[in-house]
Structures are given as C-alpha cells and as structure tokens.
Design brief:
The structure holds 2 protein chains of 2 kinds. Chain A is an all-alpha fold. Chain A has helices at residues 7-43, 79-111, 117-124, 126-129, 132-143, 149-156, 170-198, 202-211, 215-243, 247-253, 262-272, 276-301; strands at residues 66-68, 71-73. Chain A starts with 6 loop residues before the first helix and ends in an 8-residue tail after the last helix. In chain B, a hairpin with a 2-residue loop joins strand 4 (57-62) and strand 5 (65-66). Classes of the chains: A mainly alpha, B alpha+beta. Chains A and B meet through helix 8 and helix 9 of A and strand 6 of B. The structure holds adenosine-5'-triphosphate and magnesium ion. Magnesium ion binds at residues 42-43, 82, 158 of chain B.
Chain lengths: 309, 367
Amino acid sequence: MTRAVGPATLRARRARAAWWLLAPTLAALALAAGWPLARTLWLSLTDATLADPGDFAFVGLANYLEHDAGQWYGVLADPQWWRAVRNTLIFAVASVALETVLGVAIALALDVPFRGRALVRAAVLVPWAVPTVVSAKLWAWMLNDEFGVLNHAALALGLIAAPIAWTADPDLALVAVIVVDVWKSTPFVVLLVLAALQMLPGECYEAARVDGVHPVRVFFRVTLPLIWPALAVAIAFRALDALRVFDLVYVLTANSASTMSISVYARQQLIDFQDLGFGSAASTLVFLTIGLAAIVYLRLARLRPEEVR
Amino acid sequence: MADLVLRGVTKAFGAATVLDGVDLAVADGELVVLVGPSGCGKSTLLRLVAGLDELTRGEILIGGRRVEALPPQERGVAMMFQSYALYPHMSVRDSMAFGLSVARYDRAAIRARVEQAARLLQIAPLLGRKPGELSGGQRQRVALGRAIVRDPAVFLLDEPLSNLDAALRARTRLELARLHRTLNATTLYVTHDQLEAMTLAERLVVLREGRIEQVGAPLEVYRRPRNAFVAGFLGSPTMNFIGARVAVAGPCEVACLLPDGVRLRAGANGAALRAGDPVTLGIRPEHLRLADDADARIRGPVAVVERSGDACYAYLEVAGARDGLLVARLDPDSRIRPGDRLSLAAPLGAVHVFDADGVACPPAEAA
Ligand SMILES: Nc1ncnc2c1ncn2[C@@H]1O[C@H](COP(=O)(O)OP(=O)(O)OP(=O)(O)O)[C@@H](O)[C@H]1O
Ligand SMILES: [Mg+2]
C-alpha cells in the first residue's frame, strides 16, 4: 500500500526539514545570546553586585526608574545615561552618514576600470581588516597630543600653533571618535556597494548616455535605486554596530563623559561601580534601544527579504 | 531626419581589427539592414555610430555633419539595445520619459510625446508597469518606444527581435515594417537572422569579419550573390554547394563536370574561366526539381527527409557536395522516403558558378 503524498504533507515535510537544518543555529543562538540575555534581564530586576552576585534581592523596576522620597532614581533618571544616549546618537548618525556618502563615492570610483584597480581595491579594505582595538590604539597614538604624528605634521606645516589634545578636549573627542570610525568602517560600505554596482545592467548606462541624460540624474534615478537594497543592508549593519559602539570609544577616550556611549556606560556601572543590577538594567536598555532602532529602520528602508538579493 | 554616411570606418581593439574600412551611405528615411555571422562587427558598428566607442580611423557623417568627435547625446541618434536595456525599477512611462531632457521639453510635452508613442506601439495600457511585469514582446515595444519618443535623426536597432520566440518575432517584424512606413526614419538595423534581413530591408548589407561583402536590394543580393559567402549566408536551408570542374566555358553558359561525371550547365558568364578550372556550383534548394528526362541531372540516394508542412526537404548523398549532402525543397505531398534514389534538375539560370576564390561569375550575356 502506498500512502498518497499530497501537497500538504509535502509542505509539512519541507517545513520539518527546514527546522532540522535550523536547529543547530537556533541552539547555538539560545546558548550564546538567549541565555545571557535572559540572565541580564533577570539581574536587572535585582540589587545584585559584582562582588557577591549570589546575594541579592528582587527590586522590581527600581534599577530602571523609581520614585523614592521625592527623588527619582534608576538608569533613566541618571543624566549621565542621557548624555551617553545623546553621544551615541550623534556618533551613530554622523558616522553612518559619512560612511554611506564616502562609501558610495569610493565604490563608484573603484567601479571605473583603471590601471592598478585590483591593488587599490585591496588597499581600501585594509582598515576594515584591522581589529578595532588595534586600529583604535593606532589612532590613539597618532592623535596623542605629545607624541602624535598628527600634531607633529600640523605643527610642522604651520596649521596649528600649539599641540591639540584631540581625544581629551571635550569638544573634539567625539569628532575624533567619529573620524576613526569612518576611517575604519567605510571600506565595509565600499565592499557591499561595489558588489551591487557590478551587478548593474551595463547597457542601461549606455542607453542613458545615448539619450543624453545628465550623469548626476542617472546616478540619482538609476544607480541609487538599483543599489539601494545593498546600500540599505550596509547602512543597517553600520547603524546597529554604531549604536552599540564600545571598543573604539573605550580605547580612545576611556570613560570620558564627553564621548561615553551607552555601551561604555553599561560597562562602567557593571565593572567599575560593581553594580550588577543597575548595570544589567543599562545593558537591557542598550539592547532595547538597538532592537527598536533595527525595527524602525527596517520599516523605513522597506527592506523585505525578496528585495535583498 | 538625416542621412548617415560612413567612410572608411575602422575599429581595432588592441591588435584585433574588428571593422576594416567600412563605407556605407544610408539615405534619409531609408532602412538599411546589416547582417552577418556572430562576431562580424555589427554591434561594434552601431556603437561607433552611437558614439559609445571611438573610431580608430574613418569618418561618420549624420545629416552632413561630422560626428566622430561628438559625445553620444549630441549626435541625434536613438539606439535600441539587444537586451532592451530597460531600467528595471522604472515604470514604462518613466523609462520612456527618462531620455527626454527637461531642458528641451516641459512636463506636459513629455507626457504628450510618451502617450503618442505608446498609442503608436499599442502599449498605452502598460504605461504604469515595470519591465519585470511585461512579456518579451511588450518589453521590446517599450524599448522601441523609448527610441521613438526622442525623435532622433537616426535609429540604431541592435537585434531588436532576437529575444522573442518565433511567432512573436514574425509578428513584431511586421509591426516594425509598418512602423517604419509611418515614421520613415533613417534606420540602421542589425540582425543575424537572414529572414528578418530579407523582409525588412530596403537595402541589405552583408558583413563578414569587419568588411562589407555586398550591398544591395535584398532580392538582388539573394539572387545575385557576389560570392559564395553571401550566397551561403542568405537562404534557409542554405544554398547547396558542389565542387566541380569546368568542361566548357563561354560568355553565355558554363558547362561543368561533377565528380561523378555528370555534366551540369549553368547560365553564367564564364569568360574568365578555362576548361579544367576547379569551381563551386551553387544551387538553392527551392530551385531543384524532380526530373525524369534525359537532361543533365544530379542523382543520389535520399539520406534524410524533413517535412515542415509547407515543404518537404530531401537530403541526398551526392559526391562533391559540401558535407556530402545536398538538399532539395520538394512538394510537401511528395512520397519520398529515405533510401529512394532521386534525380534532380535545376533551371540553367538557377545554377551559380563560383571560382576558386569563391567569387561569383557575372550573369550570362544574352545570346
Ligand atoms: N570591447 C571589446 N574589446 C575587445 N574585443 C571586442 C570588444 N567588443 C567586441 N569585440 C570583438 O569584436 C568582434 C565583433 O563584435 P561585435 O559585438 O560587433 O559582433 P556582432 O557582429 O555584434 O556579433 P553578434 O551577432 O554575436 O552580436 C568580436 O570578435 C568581439 O570579440
Ligand atoms: Mg551584436
């Protein structure tokens, strides 16, 4: 006797196969991300300390926000947290905007055939290949007010009269962090956009040339819409990376309030102040902020799976 | 509208010369079809006229004006690409309007032009769609529409029908012919489909390896090919070629001996030939008839029979024929079967004689 295999059972079998294939990833995710996340969430509702994590009491949402004796307490009542939010947003918007514009421009330049293009392409990728901590340390030395090559060069050229403390000056520190991030991450955008550019239909451009359409118009009406799916993915990656920035800021400026990002803030609460509950609350807020940003962005960019090819 | 003149147009990519001294004049409003095998330089020629590639040598004149040094948009040409080159993300309306510069036309004028072209090509209901939502034939018409709205001096069409299936191709071919009569635009049309070339062309240019082999009215080129290449390129199935030797040559007739000893007469001027010269005889399949008289004839066993409905193609094994086979287009109802022995004859005037270099003998002098 043979059992009829209808479309429904076929679909069920496919779904089952898909789940089996996904299972290892899901298990790994649950262990590596789900479990720590759940623990952090739980700890954020307690008054645990790093010195003695086993001894704690449940405090509800007090670590987030609490009104006690006419005073507001909690992460959300801490002006330093809001300063960190502001820093993070400025950093994310500025660095991603610059990386997008520069990335597209460089990719367009590298898409034109010229002698030695392969070499230049490889060279462009170097900053991306260097580990962040290494490049941050590298820049920390270059920006150093006493020994930095930047001050040395600017002084020698007569551009500045006295050495500048790039990373210590509160007005300049955030700019310095943004510049270093742009230096490091633009290649990532270049890489994705370049791949998208190479998929573009060449004849469309020749048609536009014969029709006499201005190149700027061609860029905005043809190139940009066609590379948008790739560019949107690049922006998404960069934006989420920027929102949780830690290593760059920490290596360049440590716990300085003028550049502190929300991730650095969370670390400071957790490690320096040993406040496991409060730090976990901050960490949870970082997670929520980034999650929210991701959802809003994906909505705005209208990125659906079928468009990301 | 304007005429198009090419003088000594030469194009080399590095060491490879792709076009070699092409001379051609396309009159105002004329449709000239460029045919040739793949890789002979057809697209390259169009790209040179459009200004997408630079000439190595030579001159191009559009409406009497030298254009080699002008960028594409100043040449007044519209080009339709083999793959249509439609912008994938734009609606038909936007695609067609995109090439109309805002500087030269205002919005209302652009809209009017697009709609007029859409009506002409019967794509008005499709104006809101994107290329992905169109069939091959519709895409082809949109690409054509994009060229038409610009009202160029010269149309350049690169294998516009090559992506269509046979039925649609035939229909679109007719539409193109009709459209040309309406617009009367100077047109250079590239194809490697010889049927398209024969039916659409006012004048036909046969290109081989970057050189023009023959130019003329399609029927003239078909009936009086200047050499064996042109003769073999036009016609389907292709012309039969049989190696032979000259027996007697005169200005009114050439008599040849086929390898199997049969004598075949050709109505050609053989003044330049001598007895014993090797020649190639060319006979189109449709000129071969079943024969039963004692006249000179071609004999052989039938190897394959193909029936297309409107004809019956019999492939005979004949000594000296190219590939050993010779094809005859016979009555669709004929009862021929593989293995049968056939005797075929061709009218005197239908036998072409090509000398050892493949050059055709001129037509026979009137006796
Ligand atoms: N950019 C280029 N660089 C080098 N060689 C080229 C280039 N473009 C074309 N060629 C060569 O020039 C020759 C003619 O090419 P072209 O595209 O004009 O052929 P075509 O007649 O249009 O053929 P098809 O019928 O296959 O489209 C080919 O041998 C091709 O390899
Ligand atoms: Mg071609």
